[in-house]
Design a protein that fits this description.
Elements: E1 11-15, H1 17-26, E2 31-36, H2 43-52, E3 55-58, H3 60-66, E4 74-79, E5 90-95, H4 100-112, E6 116-121, H5 130-135, E7 145-148, H6 151-157, E8 162-172, E9 184-188, E10 205-206, H7 218-232
Parallel strand pairs: 2-3, 5-6, 5-9, 6-7, 8-9, 8-10
Antiparallel strand pairs: 1-4, 2-4
Amino acid sequence: MVRKYKHDDITSYALGATLVMELMSRRPNAVRNIYISPKSDVTAVTDLAERLGINVVESEKAFNILSPKGNCFVIAEFDKFASHISGDKHHVVLVNPSDSGNLGTIMRNVAAFEHYDLAVIRPSVDPFDPKTVRASMGAVFGINFEMFDSFDDYRNKFGEHAVVPFMLGGKPLSEYNFDGAKNYALVFGNEATGLDRDFFKYGAVEIEQSKNVDSLNLSVAASIGMYVAAHAADKIDKR
């Protein structure tokens, strides 16, 4: 039964044809149902669902509950899935992110700079919230991400990664030497509070900017950090 999403639900929803296609392509076994609005003329979704043996339900009620604005015509209900990051890849680490839009956008950019895995330190916004899923444009279904109760828990599992915290007052990013042969973790703090000063012990870096603003948006800062690191390490497959 479709209902408003809650954090402790075992299922979540992907709203929109693009996200539903990405979900079916990446994690077809997680899909429970596809809901189609009677107003929909999207045949690609139903064709793929039929090939995969996924149940399709025509229902206006599902859209009244989950997309009352009426600008969505396809919804997928899916089981939340376990995901784990790898010890032999570079990481992006988000410490206590609190905004669904930022987390989803960063997931999308993690996919764009494909050699990264994403670690998220609790407390955190829900990675399976439909708002996060939508902001990721389906990238949540294709990347590796893992939740940790603390940064210490992350370090206990991945202590060999070189920690690169992004903080005001750190070494200019343009002067930081990324060694592509060594795995590293790009670490970003909460939108409002940033990282605790204890992270300076790892050797912080700062994205150079004018004094016209006090800081960059989290997703923007993470995107710049990933872009610079990826090109410095020459890891992006541009084909």
